[in-house]
Design a protein that fits this description.
By secondary structure, this protein is an alpha/beta fold. It has eleven helices and five strands; from the N terminus they run βαβααβαβαβαααααα. The protein folds into two domains: 160 residues, Rossmann fold (3-Layer(aba) Sandwich), CATH 3.40.50.670; 54 residues. Strand 3, helix 4 and strand 4 form a beta-alpha-beta unit.
């Protein structure tokens, strides 16, 4: 049986290499929770815009991301998607599912999702990058779910709405959708994203206001700001680089130094 495992980022790769799971590995090295997107993920324009936004060289982006996509041209009997609960991972998951639907014959492979929201014994679980091979195998054996055509239909609708960047469209989608299939964490992630699209009276979205509040409380250094933000906002799955994007916006508005 030909098996493919798609990992969301390199953080899970080290632990995954300690497992005894068979199959090829593809690492999804993108950050669809930030930057330009469009519905047609299989177009050359889509990936060129991503490369330019990430500000990588064409050669670097080709090696890190586009060469990985070529793996999906192979025929697999089974594809396992390893993605987490936060917005960063859930939007990447939508992108993967959109790409598979646009590029692959979904009647051939069985596609499974491994998506933990927590882990036994880890009170502040933040992602599979924390887990070793044995713990990842535990997830594979206990929470893996096969995705259905209904799951792909939900993901397709969510992707279409997400890429518009329109708050009213997303709000209507969230209100109208009552069945989320096996995508158990997608609703909470999209609700968090909605707060990014809505602006307060000062013209700040939820994340900008949260970071400004942290800064005004006396927490001034970047590492301290990051840690304070992560205490309550791990739903966003944001790393240092992503938080810095929002801090730059606050600096541009002269709200912080």
């Amino acid at each position: 049986m030909n098996i493919l495992h798609i990992l969301n980022g390199d953080s899970t790769l080290h632990g995954f290499e300690q497992t005894g799971l068979d199959g090829d590995v593809m690492v999804w090295r993108e950050v669809f929770s930030q930057g330009p997107l469009e519905e047609n993920i299989s177009s050359a324009h889509f990936w060129r815009a991503r490369q330019e936004w990430i500000n990588d060289t064409p050669e670097g982006y080709q090696h890190k991301m586009l060469d990985q996509l070529s793996v999906l041209n192979e025929q697999y009997d089974e594809i396992n998607l390893w993605f987490e609960f936060d917005l960063h991972c859930q939007v990447n998951l939508l992108g993967v599912m959109a790409y598979l639907e646009q590029k692959a014959d979904l009647s051939t492979p069985a596609i499974y999702l491994i998506c933990p929201g927590d882990f036994p014994g880890k009170d502040d679980f933040r992602g599979m990058g924390e887990l070793n091979g044995e713990e990842l195998e535990y997830l594979y054996d206990n929470i893996r779910e096969q995705l259905s055509t209904e799951d792909f239909a939900i993901a397709q609708q969510a992707w279409k709405v997400y890429v518009t960047g329109d708050a009213s469209s997303l709000s209507a989608f969230l209100s109208a959708t009552v069945f989320w299939g096996s995508l158990h964490f997608l609703k909470a992630a999209l609700e968090a994203h909605l707060k990014r699209l809505q602006l307060n009276e000062q013209g700040l979205n939820y994340i900008e206001q949260k970071l400004l509040t942290i800064y005004n409380s006396g927490i001034k250094t970047k590492p301290e700001i990051y840690l304070e933000f992560w205490k309550t906002e791990k739903i966003y799955g944001m790393g240092d680089m992503e938080i810095e994007i929002y801090l730059d916006k606050l600096r541009d508005k002269k709200l912080i130094d």
